[in-house]
Amino acid sequence: MVAPGEMAPNFTLRSDTGEMVSLSDFRGRKVVLYFYPKADTPGCTQQACALRDVYPNIEAENAVVIGISPDEPAALVKFREKHALPFILLSDPDHQVAEAYGAWGEKQMYGKTYEGLIRSHFGVNEEGCLAEVAHKVKPLTTADLAIKLVKL
Question: Which of 23, 44, 63, 150 is flagged as catalytic?
Fold first, then answer.
């Protein structure tokens, strides 16, 4: 599991636009990195729209938002278009990046235990170090955490 002060694990994933995006592409800027289970589900939509609504404040601080889910790029395109999301969405179908960040693990729902994506939030500073780590966040918490990070 990753911790504040450590270098953020670098990755390269396919975006909803089809291009490959690496975390290292954003060195010199703060990055709000969040993991969400599935595009266009109620909690994930709440989370993404809350970030969308504060995105101008994040951009004003020379920061970016990157959302990562196991969804294929085609699902991410629909999600972005339906909710007018202004930030980067990346596809992690084999959940390797989620695992590297500790955002993949055991979950429970309706009495059943299974492996899945754990809604998580990470703040990466301009040098590529983790400034903020939060697992099991509530959908609307990410926007507040994002604003807090970019004000640091």
Answer: 44
